[in-house]
Design goal:
By secondary structure, this protein is an alpha/beta fold. Among the domains are: 2-131, Response regulator (Rossmann fold), CATH 3.40.50; 382-487, no CATH class. The protein has helices spanning 11-22, 34-43, 60-70, 84-92, 104-116, 128-131, 133-141, 147-160, 165-168, 175-205, 236-246, 252-293, 299-302, 308-313, 328-331, 338-344, 346-363, 386-391, 429-438; strands spanning 2-7, 26-31, 48-52, 76-81, 96-99, 383-384, 395-399, 403-410, 413-421, 446-453, 456-462, 467-474, 480-487. The strands form two sheets. Strands 6-7-8-9-13-12-11-10 form an eight-stranded antiparallel sheet. Helix 4 (84-92) links the parallel strand 4 (76-81) and strand 5. The two termini are 45 Å apart. The chain crosses the membrane at residues 251-271. Residues 297-307, 316-341 have a biased composition (Pro residues).
Length: 488
């Protein structure tokens, strides 16, 4: 069976190729990005490679040049072109292209013919719009190249604005009708003259009739702009631009930047001149602030088990010196030992309190994420199954083309996401990485353990975050058949 690699991120194209695979016409391998397609080509080359233009932001020319270097000899590369420009690039490289703008049935027939080598359908070419452009251009240029047609138009317009003789010569017309007829006769010549001017301008812009009545030359840039210059062979936009260039620049546009440049050094000089006074005053308050903020004041609060006498002696150590003179021989001996003893005991408690502080700070950090509040963006375009939630409380089911998704919801948070492949297929690495990143918030995982259950190899994995995984692979080829991402 012919093996085909499809590099496309469009669901419509993937669905058509899956339909052809269901008819056992080809064996399909899909990749939604260019890097994953390169990995697939390196791992298992295919007979045909279909790549969608503009995928991953690359043009058809770049895609063809890049993939031609990677394909093995004899492999067929086909560009899925979205327009005539991409098809022309494929033709320059000697590669075949398929028009993606075709209807689904016709596109499927064209792809089948490319794979099997059968004749292409009659309407499967993309060059048809490009071939009709010269004919359309000739038809558009035809009215301007035929002076007799323009003369007939002028005659019809002049006849349309002509006043009927029956109205002007009607002797029984009322005074109001006569006034209206006179007003119409005055307005009609003005409209006819305006139409003649418009027709002359239109003919003078291009066409065969332009050679008979040459347009007046464009006035040089040094002359002042006149109202008539607008019709002197240039557009209104060009005339306005030329007039803007000749306008004199306002003086304040130069004065304002100069004032800003002068003000910046002056302000910086005045601010720097005042700063020494603030620097001198600041140290006067620092010594007073240090004792209050020093960690030595914290031990009485951090050590509530200390006796009251010790608490009273420590803050009162400075006043103990004036109390020595009244009883010098008696108080001088017992007084010195208590301060060192009391100071030596709470001193270790201060570092202990400081060491105990970091765990409290770590505990004050926000709690780890316990679930996803919204559905992951990968589920956009899937079809929900409302009946599944009625028979399985707390679960939601969504059906996609490549897999089905089941989510467990509790307390308005999605706690788990189960992904299972459909129609006996496998789950691509791109889809797995995307769900792990969008739902689990992790970019990588680590396999903790693996065991064989039935025909599957079950891997228990963990991430750096608060999520874990269970991956089910085929025991023979280790292809991924399903996985579960859940919050711990």
């Amino acid at each position: 069976m012919t093996s085909v690699l499809l590099i496309s991120d469009t669901e419509r194209v993937q669905r058509i190729f899956q339909t052809l695979e269901g008819k056992e016409v080809l064996k399909l391998h899909t990749a939604s990005t260019l890097p994953s397609g390169e990995a697939q080509i390196t791992a298992s080359p295919c007979d045909f490679t279909f790549v969608q233009s503009r995928i991953s932001g690359f043009s058809g020319d770049i895609l063809l040049r890049h993939l031609e270097k990677m394909l093995h000899k004899g492999a067929v590369l086909v560009l899925l072109a979205g327009d005539a420009e991409d098809a022309e690039q494929a033709r320059k490289h000697g590669r075949q292209s398929v028009d993606l703008t075709l209807a689904d049935d016709l596109l499927a027939q064209t792809l089948l013919a490319v794979v099997t080598g059968a004749p292409l359908p009659e309407q499967g070419t993309i060059e048809a719009p490009a071939a009709t452009k010269p004919a359309a251009a000739k038809q558009e240029a035809a009215p301007f190249a035929s002076p007799p047609d323009t003369e007939e138009k002028e005659a019809e317009r002049s006849a349309a604005f002509a006043v009927s003789p029956s109205r002007t010569t009607d002797p029984q017309a009322s005074p109001f009708e006569e006034a209206m007829q006179r007003a119409a006769s005055n307005v009609a010549p003005i409209k006819a003259s305006l139409l003649e001017v418009e027709e002359r301008v239109e003919i003078g812009k291009g066409g065969a009739g332009a050679g008979n009545t040459p347009a007046p030359p464009v006035p040089p840039a040094g002359q002042p702009v006149r109202p008539d210059d607008i019709y002197a062979g240039e557009t209104l936009l060009e005339a306005m631009r030329r007039a803007e260039k000749k306008k004199s620049r306002r003086p304040y546009l130069l004065i304002l930047p100069a004032l800003v440049l002068i003000a910046i050094p002056f302000i910086s000089y005045t601010v720097g001149k005042r700063s020494p006074a603030n620097i001198e005053i600041a140290p006067a308050f620092k010594p007073a602030a240090k004792p209050s903020a020093s960690p030595q004041a914290l031990p009485p609060k951090a050590a509530p088990a200390a006796p009251p006498a010790a608490l009273a002696e420590k803050p009162g150590t400075p006043p103990a010196q004036p109390a020595l003179p009244p009883a010098t021989p008696q108080t001088a001996k017992p007084a010195p030992p208590p301060p060192p003893a009391t100071a030596a005991r709470p001193a270790p408690t201060a570092p202990a309190a400081q060491k105990a502080a970091p765990p409290a700070a770590t505990a004050a950090k926000p709690a780890a994420k316990r679930g996803a509040e919204r559905l992951p963006p990968v589920l956009e375009g899937t079809k929900p199954d409302p009946q599944y939630g009625k028979t399985h409380p707390g679960w939601e089911r969504y059906l996609g083309l490549r897999a089905e998704y089941k989510l467990f919801r509790e307390n308005n948070l999605y706690k788990a996401l189960q992904v299972v492949s459909v129609d006996g297929g496998t789950i691509s690495e791109d889809l797995f990485r995307r769900i792990l990143r969008e739902f689990g918030g992790a970019d990588d995982y680590r396999v903790e353990s693996s065991e064989k259950k039935g025909g599957y190899l079950v891997e228990q994995c963990s991430t750096k975050g608060n999520t874990a995984l269970t991956i089910y692979r085929n025991h023979n080829n280790r292809k991924m058949k399903g996985f579960v991402v859940y919050y711990r």
